Amino acid sequence: MRAARFAVLVALVPLAVLVGIGFGGAPLDPATLLHALAHPHDGGDAATIVWQLRIPRVAIAATVGAALALAGALLQALLRNPIVDPYLTGISSGAGASIAIAATVGAAPAVIPPLGFVSGLATAVLVAVLARRGSRLDPERLVLAGVSLSALLSAIVTLAIERLARGTASEAILAWLAGSLAGRGWPELAAAAPEALLGFVIAVAAIPALNVLRLGEVRAASLGVDVVRLQWALLVAATLLTAAAVALAGLVGFVGLVIPHLARRLVGPDLRALIPASLLAGAALVVLADALARTVAAPAEIPLGVLLAFVGVPTFLVLYLRGGARAYA
Amino acid sequence: MPEPVIVALDGIAIARGGRVLLENVDLALRAGVVAVIGANGVGKTSLLRTIAGALAPAAGTVRVHGVDVRTLAARERARTIALVEGNEPAFAALTVEDAVAAARFPYHRWWEWEQTPADEAAVAEALARTALDAFRERELGTLSAGERQRVWIALALAQRAPVLLLDEPTAHLDLKASVQTLQLLRDVAAGGALVIAVLHQLEEAAAFADRVVVLAGSGVIADGAPAAALTTTTIAGAFGVDVAVERRPEGLAFHRRAAAKRS
Q1: Which residues, in sequence order, are CB contacts of B134 under 8 Å at separation 6+?
Q2: DSSP state of A292
């Protein structure tokens, strides 16, 4: 049963990739598409669309989805709280505030991804320092520090839109807040991929210890888990993954909170299955959503974050509320 | 020849939140069941955690098989000492079998994700000994408090450690389950393990322990066989309650002498 559900997720990813490459603003018939796929250096419009626009977009969407879902699954396991979102650590609001300020002073659009990454990381470090108690990480303090710092930084974004930014500046901020992959390509992916990959490697190495952590911190420690080291490793992994996603796509909500939930429904709470399932489901969902965002109102694009919220949140609420939440006993 | 010392406490002092709980605790513990008795807040749980190496003592050393417990690597410590504390919340959707299987974590390198036949045998034996066979697939959230308590004991058994520390193992258990659990601990000790259990019921300590350690003030006020350690004087010293201790052929019986206060 679990294996069958897992197989469905595995099959879903190439399917989503096909949809992501097959659909877009400019309609391509299957023959042209296949020709372009087979001849990347053909030089025609179709080859350019496929290889310079759609394939990088799909790769970025898959990276963003996988990174956010993985970060969400890690933080939910770390804080032993099923309603934790990867943006909890202040990454999104820190990135947002710095981007709002940069846009206000007229910085070039090209600086937005790296700036988002660095300031998101800096905010996460600040939140982690505030959440520290001795050498260990206090989950409750992490939530409190993350939420309150996020509120402050969001206020900076609002102030920038309201008072300072004029015209294109506020549009740039709004585009970032709405979450979008428009205009992203291979260079942005190349810049964000190593951080995401590092986060992924740390996450995978931590899976057996994370499974033991489900029994509680005291029990995990008496079973030989170095809880302090695990907590910091997970926070670093989740931060790298989220910062990479934020740098690529801006604010894409829903994925990091909801995909781990759905994956848990599908394959159960064992992190050896849950982590890969979250990864696959997150990648597939964002690739499909981005394809939809490019197609529905073509040639205009619907912001990815907005689309995911519109389609995803009601679906999730129905599934979640009907099935009932399970917490800790 | 006396049994070898498994756990040795040497000049242990324990402080929590700036307050000294225990001082100058010296104990040499051998295979068998040791009951720790004392009033709430005297430091029983902290003593167990200190022996487990989870808490650094303010002074002194805990040695297991001659090695300072604080110098053991985390997984090595977990292969040596199992600690059962019942009251920490755990993930409710976890099945009993998965929860108990976590006991095998210290036997795995970080890249070894799958259970070996030895792991499965240890888990199966622990489930059988705690009468949890029928509960394998049940989720922790669906268990009663007593059933969950048995899961934590099964977890410690599957850990296959020669030192077993249990904080109130009979809490939440009915009379039958309590007796079964304590008998199980006796069986484990008979296999050469040291079992240290914090108990609140004097009758349980008297009936099942080989040795009773009574804590009061900031140290050990009695240490010895149940009949020697549990006396009217030591019980008054530990709890401030006047109890007559009656020696019967079947064991010790405890009767509170002061009339019950009625409001």
Answers
A1: none
A2: H
> Would the CA dihedral through B158, B164, B165, B171 be positive or negative?
positive
CB A2, CB A43: distance < 8 Å: no
Instruction: Report the gap between the CA of B85 and the closest CA in chain A (Å).
Output: 8
Report the gap between the CA of B158 and the closest CA in chain A (Å). Answer: 11
* Assigned architecture for domain B5-256: 3-Layer(aba) Sandwich (3.40)
Query: Which residues lie across from B37 on neighbouring strands?
Result: B214
Is residue A41 less than 8 Å (CB to CB) from chain B? no
Specify which residues B84 forms β-bridges with. B166
Mutation choice for B interface testing from A222, A226, A230, A270 by most B CBs within 10 A: A222
Q: Are B198 and B48 in contact (CB under 8 A)?
A: yes
Contact present, A208 and B105 (Cβ < 8 Å): yes
A223/B93 Cβ within 8 A: no
Residues paired with residue B8 on neighbouring β-strands, in sequence order: B28, B63
pLDDT tens for each residue of chain B, 263 residues long: 578 999 999 999 999 888 899 999 999 999 999 999 999 989 999 999 999 999 999 999 999 999 999 999 999 999 999 999 877 888 888 899 999 999 999 999 878 888 899 999 999 999 999 999 999 999 999 998 888 989 999 999 999 999 999 999 998 888 988 999 999 999 999 999 999 999 999 999 999 999 999 999 889 999 999 999 999 999 999 999 999 999 888 888 999 886 555 55
Instruction: Enumerate the H helices of B52-194 as residue ranges.
Output: 74-80, 96-101, 117-129, 145-158, 175-190
Quick one: which H or E segment has residue B85?
A: strand B81-85
Q: Which helix (H) or strand (E) holds B215?
A: strand B211-216
Cα–Cα–Cα angle for A131, A136, A140, nearest 5°? 40
Contacts of A276 (CB under 8 A, 6+ apart): A6
- As a whole number of angstroms, the distance between CA A16 and CA A287 comes to 6
Domains and CATH numbers, chain A: 2-323 (1.10.3470.10)
With CA atoms as reference, report the closest residue to A252 among A101, A69, A99. A69
Helix H or strand E segment including B37: strand B32-38
Model ipTM value: 0.87
Tokens for B201? 């019921």
